[in-house]
Amino acid sequence: MLYIVGFGAGNHGGMTFDAEAAILRSDIIVGYTAYTELLRKIYPHKEYYCTGMKQERERVEYALEQAASGKTVSLVCSGDSGVYGMAALTLELAEKMAETDIEIVPGVTAALSGGALLGAPLTHDFAVISLSDLLTPMEKIEKRLECAAMGDFSVVLYNPSSKKRADYLSRACDILMKYKSPETVCGYVKNIGRDGEQSRILSLNELKNTSVDMFTTVFIGNSETRCIHGKMVTPRGYRNV
Amino acid sequence: MLYIVGFGAGNHGGMTFDAEAAILRSDIIVGYTAYTELLRKIYPHKEYYCTGMKQERERVEYALEQAASGKTVSLVCSGDSGVYGMAALTLELAEKMAETDIEIVPGVTAALSGGALLGAPLTHDFAVISLSDLLTPMEKIEKRLECAAMGDFSVVLYNPSSKKRADYLSRACDILMKYKSPETVCGYVKNIGRDGEQSRILSLNELKNTSVDMFTTVFIGNSETRCIHGKMVTPRGYRNV
Predict the structure, then answer these.
(1) What is the structure's pLDDT at B55?
(2) Pick from B106, B137, B146: which is nearest to A241 by CB?
């Protein structure tokens, strides 16, 4: 049996009861090293198998093999198991292997946990976009930023930066400003639910000149988003409907 | 103290530990009748205050007043507290009232819980759009559908139908088909995590001719989404990057 578990931001409170049940039921927990370290603090007596970044395929194959051999396995993802998570790759690789029972356990993705810390940025229609061009052509990412801005979506950016992509957030802000005002209310949250958690509300123009790291999630409001008592608030609808 | 709690789909397993803690700590649970009924099954001994649809403002004011009078209150939302939830309206109305401590507790929204049931439709960039034109002009909704399709986003539709809006999903599919193939892999889930849960995978063209109700969440794939062993799977990236 293989569970693909989204365990939320990494604190116990943000995890679902189903996620904990899957982890407790498992003989082995498989995941990216940084994530299994978070879980080890909560469940120190479980057996873990960890691999580094970019070893997703190897990790998923290991989880599938262990499950096929009769073990109960949790393949863990921070946030949700689907959103930029391991569920799709597992279903793709499982196609070519011995049949295994797979259950996907959803979790609170950073758009939701980070949004709650900032206020209520995602009350209305929104788009989620990753700025990582590791598996996606840059033109595709830029097109999506432009379309999201054109549609006046609130936008959440995942993977907004890395050492190799230090200027990506700034470029993304430029594209968004083709259609969004430089005064658009924005926010970001770093280390959601973990040590060193911090958040900030700022304008799109300020965001353009701000450096964030890869543990940050960025929120860009729609045309109605306001800052109320230091919170980022997108209303439920449009005035004058 | 006022908690705005996203309690997930409505089954206990899909709730976070923080959501349960807020509910157990509260003197009174405030919410839309259909949602408080779900919670009453799990927490039968709590005190509830329920109001009907379209009485959001009255409900939020009641919750704020109770909290201001010194009670601990949970204002509950199905799914997430932010995404089409009550967090924004509460922060807006709280602006004009006596200061109250407000904590927003995020939850697993239907895009994630429904996605997990269908497979992994939201692995990559996606847009969430509500088809309800109660508080949003129809032209704005149509523009967003068009922009989301143009950007090759996977799309999740909330509130895809109601008695007054029986043809909205069909019209939305027509707009999406300006840029998406009629063969695009789609899916929908009804009554997620509740009695009568059901899901189906189908093409965009089939979806256009399908009736769904207001308890249904609809998923439209991107150009890479495939159906694998009856599951809707959007890959992590694009081939040939």
Answers:
(1) 87
(2) B137
Q: Decide if pLDDT at B239 tops 80.
A: no
Which H/E stretch holds residue A217?
A: strand A216-220
For B130-189, write each residue's pLDDT tens digit.
999 988 999 999 999 999 999 999 999 999 987 788 899 999 999 999 999 999 999 999
Residue carrying structure tokens 């604190």: A11
Residue B112 touches partner A, C-beta closer than 8 Å: yes
The amino acid occupying position A145 is L
Is pTM beyond 0.95? Reply is yes
Q: Tens digit of pLDDT for each residue in B6-25?
A: 999 999 999 999 999 999 99
Separation CA A104–CA B211 (nearest Å): 27
CB within 8 Å of chain B, chain A residues 16-75: 16-18, 20-21, 56
Chain A CB contacts of B124 under 8 Å are 84, 130, 136
How far the first Cα of chain A sits from its last, in Å, is 51
Distance from CA of B211 to the nearest CA of A (A): 22
Do B150 and B169 touch, CB atoms closer than 8 A?
A: no
ipTM > 0.85 (yes/no)? yes
